[in-house]
Amino acid sequence: MESLGKKLDRDGQVVHQGIAVYGNKGSTDQHAYVQQLRDGVDNFFVTFIEALDDPSDIQPVDGENPADFLDGFLQGTRTALLEGGRQSLTISLQVFNERSLGALIALFERAVGFYGELVNINAYHQPGVEAGKKAAAEILALQQRIEQTLADGQARTLVQLHQDLGEGAPTSPEPLFWILRHLCGNQRGYQADGDWGRPNALVFRRTVA
């Protein structure tokens, strides 16, 4: 998802490409996914990964092998999807070990790159990730400014604090509220008086030196 989620293709055209990837293991997906996959929106394909060797740390119970039930769930799920007209493919491993895990990683790495070429996007350019990092850096810088402003011990509402920050303050006081909520909730020496359900009525102050 990180590599294929792109707004623009290589020609600068808006394409909004991407694939949502979800994963699960064993019989758990019977309740988490299968109902949606079989009867919900048909906009996906499923990849099953099976290991043919039984796990050595799961012993038979009353003469029954738990791994047989897992294989039954795999085959049953594939059949249920097929009956619902849904697409799937299966990758079978003789054993699951370090080598087969590495092979799976290499396979999907190459599949991502190949898919990117087919839909004309750069799978290795990640402006969305970079935007998130820049936004996080701005929030941390804003937190420093808030702490410096409140260091004088004067009580302020969100609106007053927003005004006192002056040039460079965010257009909305909402980020201030989120930062102060974090500071007040972690015994950083900040106090909020009022009802948290009415942010504009809260009064914030620095309580310790």
Structural account:
- By secondary structure, this protein is α+β, with helices and mostly antiparallel strands.
- The chain folds into two domains: 6-118, Rossmann fold; 127-206, Arc Repressor Mutant, subunit A (Orthogonal Bundle).
- 44% of the residues lie in helices and 14% in strands.
- It contains seven helices and seven strands.
- It has helices at 29-32, 34-39, 66-83, 98-118, 127-150, 158-165, 174-184, and strands at 6-8, 14-17, 46-51, 88-93, 156-157, 190-193, 203-206.
- The radius of gyration is 26 Å and the shape is elongated.
- The protein starts with 5 loop residues before the first strand and ends with a strand.
- 9% of the residues are buried.
Classified by CATH, the class of the largest domain is Alpha Beta
CATH architecture descriptor of the largest domain: 3-Layer(aba) Sandwich
CATH topology tier name of the largest domain: Rossmann fold
Strand content: 5-15%
Number of domains: 2
Widest sheet: strand ordering: 5-7-6
How would you describe the oligomerization state of the chains in this entry?
single chain
Number of strands: 7
What are the low-pLDDT stretches, counting only 5+ consecutive residues below 50? none
**Mind telling me the C-alpha Rg?**
26 Å
